[in-house]
Amino acid sequence: MANDAVLTIAAMRAAEAAAVAAGTSERALMQRAGQGAAEYVWRIAAGRGVTVLCGPGNNGGDGYVIAETLRARGLAVCVVAPVEPGTGSARKARESYQGPFQKRAENLTNPILVDCLFGYGLSRPLEGAFAEVLAQAAAAHPYRIAVDVPSGVVSDSGAMLGEVPRFDLTLALAAWKQAHFLMPALAVMGEKRLVPIGLDLTAETARLAERPVLSPPPADSHKYKRGLLAIVAGSMPGAAMLAAQAALRSGAGYVKLLSDHSHPDAPAELVIEGGNLGESLADERIAALLIGPGLGRDDDARARLCAVLETREPCVLDADALHLLDPDLLEGCDATRLLVTPHEGELAKLCAAFDVAGETKLARARALQRATGLTVLAKGPDTVLFGEGGLRFFPQASTWLSVAGTGDVLAGIAAARLAVHGEPARAAEEAVPLHREAAAIAEPAFTAGQLADAVQPAMERFL
User: Fold this and answer.
1) Secondary structure (3-state) at 423
2) Where are the beta strands (DSSP E) in 344-433?
3) From the CB of residue 269, how many other CB atoms can be counted at a distance below 10 Å?
4) pTM
5) Which of 132, 301, 318, 396 has its CA at 20 to 30 Å from residue 5's CA atom?
6) Could you read off the pLDDT of 2-21 as tens digits, one per residue?
7) Phi and psi, residue 390, nearest 5°
């Protein structure tokens, strides 16, 4: 069992088939899933009545198990099922349910709704009676729970097939699905909880990123051993300064800003070095580099990016650097030492530059990583990482992060972590939770500078 695995539809079906082949009946899996989900519903209901929407497939079967479990415990339960069950296991679950049943969403007075119309395999929009039942039932219930994924959500992509109600809670059955961490579905799922049912998921490589555990510097540490990070500024130095402020608080031993601008408000602990960029980059003590925030997109910016890439040092490329990067600049580089941190627009620009495509953000990030060897952290309201170790998903962070400059802060955190150990994927896996935790400390309505200041207390929570 691996409770951090994130499965595609095909992987989920294969895991269920493997369990059945090993001797666990489909009916037994349904009982585990339904009873496990019922425990959450029971606690939330707190004695109040529950309406369960049941579809024709096994997700509907889970719903009948939930309904009977709650009914047997004394709750008022009503099942709404527009059609009869269409699978053997679902029919058996329906036969075991001893409570009231109706085909239409009429005269519903229970406060809790449980959606079990369709689960992870849905591939077409809800129509007819199903669409009508879901819309009417959602409007009639103040608290809504989706079982596995909300009906109308495409499990592999997070796309929504028509109108999908907002839910307060989504209970993932057996394993996380990709839609649990992808927009736009993520926006309608509310809180998310996992209901394990004993499947063997240890072989899966797509996972929910683990909470990092950061270590204090060892006893023999000094500033260079902890990592010298050089941040290359450009035509708009404010963004690079934000990244530097975050990097200073993220564990690197020494942060240097390579900039030809005046920085009268720079903190005293930040070393600012101007002059010949090539000479500055020749410092053999540099452990990692960051370039992109405020870089610009002219010929001088491209030359600075070229100089950085020629060092062959581990590097984070963000912002303007992502608009400049192309196959010519990447030629001869060890792309596995580079971490790119694009938002949606920058990801599209990179895909165009490297002639790759995909219908979804997830597909585009995967295609870019495979074509280039870069470690790709595709950031946004939903954030995914493709790099060494496979695909990683992240829980949603504070929506207050939707303000200018927070991406520069993330880049600074990631670059500082890269300076500490030199591993791009690991740096990204550490940076995203630190960024999220800093936002939780700083919110509400913080500026990017306040977010950078909150990185240090966020670090304390991961030691």
Assistant:
1) coil
2) 375-378, 384-387, 390-393
3) 9
4) 0.95
5) 318
6) 789 999 999 999 999 999 99
7) 105, -155
